From TrEMBL, chain A:
PANTHER family tied to this protein: PYRUVATE DEHYDROGENASE E1 COMPONENT, TRANSKETOLASE-LIKE PYRIMIDINE-BINDING DOMAIN-CONTAINING PROTEIN
InterPro entries in alphabetical order: PDH/Transketolase, THDP-binding, Transketolase-like_Pyr-bd
Domain Transketolase-like pyrimidine-binding: 3-167
Cofactor needs: thiamine diphosphate
Protein name, entry field: Transketolase
Amino acid sequence: MSISGRESYKDELTKLAFENERIICIEADLGGKKHPFEQSHPDRFFNLGIAELASIDIAAGLAEAGFIPFFSTFSSFAALRAAESIKLAMGYMEKNMKIVAAYGGVSGGWFGTTHHCLEDIAIIQTFQNIRIACPHGEIETRQVIREAAQSQEPYYIRLARNAVYDSLDRAEESSCRELLIEGAERANAKLCLISVGEEATELCKTILQENDSVVHAHVCYVDLKSLKSYIDELKQISDTFLVVEEHRATGSSASALALLMPECKVYSHDCGEKWPMYGGTHQDVLDYLGFGLAHLQQQIHFIGGTDGF
Amino acid sequence: MNNIDTVYEPTPQSEHLNNLLAITKEARKLIIDMAASETGCHIGGSLSVIDLLIGVYSKYVQDENTRIVLSKGHTAAALYATLYLYGLIEDNPAESYGQKGSLFTGHPNHKLPHIPFSTGSLGHGIPYAAGWALGQKVKNLDGLGIVLGGDGELQEGLCWETAQIIQAKSISNFIYIVDCNGGQNDGYVSDISPIHNLRQRFEAFGFHVEEIDGHNMEQILAALALNREKPLALLATTIKGKGVAAIEGNPDSHYAKIPERVASKWKRSLL
């Protein structure tokens, strides 16, 4: 049985740290009690308390000292609250440090607007030099953590809350930096869905099953450098794309891809412009924002026009 | 020696006190009800801060020039209970807490009346309240900026930046109430990042400091009534889960979702 992305992160990092003594785990009071990393590597685990800006700058210092710090908090408290620290330490100075940001999008459900983050990808992407990964499910999350540990690049890894997803099958030895295509055999496909993140990938899996005119390209990395690397392959699939992403339209992967492929039609299924002010489950909040299966089906119908897909 | 034959005749002041104690008991019931909702709630901290909230609202609820901010926003259940019992919101928050379409989210929502600032990202409520207080000062009004924060929250640098500004700009119409329950999400404040010499820290920033029992309503009211010329830091020692014997003092009570039968039992046995 799979476990959530957050739990996968803790477990994978704990395992990696047995092999790599440079790995350090930093929390800011949101890692939970009995953290597996703390139990296995107490001398390399630091809960720095409720202090996100300081934590990121301290991680930069640790990186300069030769360590590979992984710092985890909620996405809002990292990407928004500590944006300047990320810009300078990770973007400009390219310190080899990794942020693992849970509660991405509106996965916090009833916790409310202070705990939602629909702006993080836009902000981090603006800074340049930072790899941004939005893994789907346990297997992909574990692989991203391994790739982050091996890479010299700064990483921002966006996770959800506690939901459990089964990752898509990826060929062995395949990197998460490669596109993962479903329905590639559909020669007459007219629309390519591009999924970013966990809920978006689940939606695209469903659409793929019910509509044989679409192809699904799942992307895990969505920083500008990664998006550029997908372009040639995407253009071979289709000239019409619908990017599904739990994020604002502004600064979304759709907006970046539209700029990178001006000759193509790039549409966006995103979380719109409303504030997620009400309670409810993750799904309830997404529904309020117009993000979900029914809305996506309508949008595909609209894009298909009278000819349909 | 106590004279058990003495007939206790309540004075208007003790009537007020008894009334407040009754309100805090009702508020605790509402908090327990919210812990029994589909989502559960941050019950431990809500039960630690509720006496302070009731005390503050009892004194300032009709003061149009004063703003009260709950900066430790995860204890929204306590704030919602307080606002409801003071008639500042119409709907019983326990009936829709956390649910789809409800503004009673897990952290305070400024879309609700009498919540001036959405909190939950720790630290932000303190400068907001200071800003309100500064505004009153500039306008030569006598309103206060009052903030209730947590002791764990003091780990955020924003709290101390604000203390610096309060001293620098002589914002004396400011009250900072610290709910010192000793807990935070991952455990005890003393284990994670202890706040040493808290009184001296606030005094160094020019505050008048009072240390009280945060569950003793008389002490709360007395501290709020102090004549002073400096900003006030009220360091209130409290107990996480206060009033519910099953969880009192247990840091694991930070967040809980309980069955209805447990809620009923806890409400009946409130201390």
